[in-house]
Amino acid sequence: MRKLIIAANWKMNMGPQEAADFIDSFSQKVADAKGVDIVLSPPMVSLAAASSKLAGSSIGLSAQNVSENDNGAFTGETSTLMLKELFVQYVIIGHSERRSIYGETDAIINAKIKKARAANLKPIFCIGETLEQREGGQLEAVLRTQITDGLVGVSVEDLAETVIAYEPVWAIGTGVTASAQQAQDAHAFCRSVIAELYGQEAADKIRIQYGGSVKPANSAELLGQEDIDGALVGGASLDPQIFADLIHNALT
Ligand code: 13P
Description:
Layout (H helix, E strand, L loop, with lengths): L3 E6 L6 H14 L6 E6 L5 H8 L5 E4 L16 H6 L4 E4 L2 H7 L3 H13 L3 E6 L3 H5 L3 H12 L5 H5 L2 E4 L13 H19 L1 H6 L1 E5 L7 H5 L6 E4 L6 H12 L1
Helix pairs in contact: 1-2, 1-12, 5-7, 7-9
Bound molecules: 1,3-dihydroxyacetonephosphate.
1,3-dihydroxyacetonephosphate binds next to strand 8.
């Protein structure tokens, strides 16, 4: 069975002090949560503070982005080795905000996934369609292209350390959640694409998170779907009590 993975994506929220305060409060609230990987993704400047707070904790630490380059003249960027130095384990790659606001292409995302795996970071590889694409009947074509092009040259061993996050763009930050059936259908399709590319065993093992307006009121239904193995949570992860409730509800 696939272990659930519920990750917070704090986006550009939570400075170092706020991140530390969140962890003090949140860690106690989820101390009893078993059978789930919990991951926090603070902004880059808060990773060091979060890392020291999480030392010895079972809560994982993720960055929200990483450079596809090793080091050098890349102003504003952060390398995999810098993240490793802070004991970061995961990195969100290809979030729709990175794709749409910062122009990240499938090729860049692919380079980042490979760079992350070379440093033994676990990618949280985001995919998802816009409303226009869904309504235009392109859902499956879009997901297939994002998955195939994002994973070019990624070995089956590296895939096993990768999490896919299906985040329909129209459900992000809008309060509109995909219905459990819409999400399940998209996840099953993504898993079938992985089966075509890597075989059934790899497809059965890979964890696919749902993201887009997940909250305490809908986490149980969404994560109860057969092919939904966790959640990537934005807004509802910014409050320790709400995020803890979301996790507890998903486990019931
Ligand atoms: P919301 O949960 O705020 O819709 O954000 C989802 C998301 O983009 C997580 O990466």
